[in-house]
Amino acid sequence: MLEVRGLSFSYGDFSIEGATLEVKEGEVVTLLGPNGSGKTTILKAIYGLLKPKERCVFIDGRDFHGLPIRERAKLAGYVPQSHTPPFPYTVLDVVVTGLASQLGPFESPRKEHYEKALEKLGLLGLERLKDKPYTQLSGGQMQLVLIARALVQEPRVLLLDEPTAHLDFKNQVKVLGIVKRLAREEGISAIMTLHDPNLASLYSDRIALVKDGKIRAAGRPHEVLREEMLRDVYGVPVCVLEFDGFRLILPRTEVIQ
Ligand SMILES: Nc1ncnc2c1ncn2[C@@H]1O[C@H](COP(=O)(O)OP(=O)(O)OP(=O)(O)O)[C@@H](O)[C@H]1O
Ligand SMILES: [Mg+2]
């Protein structure tokens, strides 16, 4: 289980103030909020790419930022919003880099590492791209490869920053389905950011609404995705419809013909 107890961080002119979150084993929690509200900053500070003001991240009760880097890599996997490698590695090699922390300093990846990487590529339907240079992939394909790279670590906690940003309709559903299944079947704690409140509603156990560096509300999708709250956070009128057991969130805007 991931616990974030009062995370604070400042870039100078932008701060995260006292973000508190819990992601239980098997749960998917989504950070939802406008551009620049602090979602990526929160994920990076949880993962340790940014240093919070105080130690505040615990995985299964252990102070995550106090652990050696190899232990941290076994516990948590991070999928960045975007990533450009410096060399034209093949797709398979990029996925294998997810295992770097499990190898010794001069140790090369072995057969079993490549097999594990191929298995994760297969899970995401990417086997046929394994020998292609990563730099020649489409944005959506790159994103799927980065997800495979995080999965190959078989982490307890998975952090995904806009995992659906460049994906087509089918792959959005596929990737979020995989995240949910991993949470349910492997007991992974998943925390991600999304922009689409409808996808967040469908795939999250809980949602945290972020605005101006603060978590404004957190709870089950039906508790958080309310017209007034969404209007307050995004500054646009929103209409929430109940349909066939689903919630549909639509902007209440004038349609220009
Ligand atoms: N490296 C940085 N140095 C200084 N300020 C930064 C840096 N990175 C981000 N910021 C600022 O921090 C704020 C929050 O940025 P962040 O990337 O966390 O937002 P976000 O919610 O992920 O937005 P988006 O939905 O557009 O990805 C923004 O005002 C941004 O300008
Ligand atoms: Mg972001």
What is the name of the CATH superfamily? P-loop containing nucleotide triphosphate hydrolases
Point out poorly predicted stretches.
none
User: Structural class of the helices, strands and pairings?
Assistant: alpha/beta
CATH topology: Rossmann fold
Helix content: 25-40%
**Ligands, deduplicated:** adenosine-5'-triphosphate, magnesium ion
Q: Number of domains in the coordinates?
A: 1
What is the number of helices? Answer: 9
Mean pLDDT: 93
User: What gap, in angstroms, lies between the N and C termini?
Assistant: 50 Å
Describe it for me?
The protein is α/β, with parallel strands linked by helices and 257 residues long. The protein has a single domain (2-251), classed as P-loop containing nucleotide triphosphate hydrolases (Rossmann fold, 3-Layer(aba) Sandwich). 33% of the residues lie in helices and 26% in strands. The protein contains 9 helices and 12 strands. It has helices at 39-47, 69-75, 91-96, 111-123, 139-151, 169-186, 197-203, 221-224, 227-234; strands at residues 2-10, 15-23, 28-32, 57-59, 62-63, 76-79, 157-161, 189-194, 206-211, 214-219, 238-243, 246-251. Strands 6-7-8-3-9-10 form a 6-stranded mixed β-sheet, sandwiched between helices. Strands 2-1-4-5 form a 4-stranded antiparallel β-sheet, covered by helices on one side. Strands 11-12 form a two-stranded antiparallel sheet. A hairpin with a 2-residue loop joins strand 11 and strand 12. Helix 4 (111-123) packs across helix 5. It starts with a strand and ends in a 6-residue tail after the last strand. The mean pLDDT is 93. Bound molecules: adenosine-5'-triphosphate and magnesium ion. Adenosine-5'-triphosphate (ATP) binds next to helix 1.
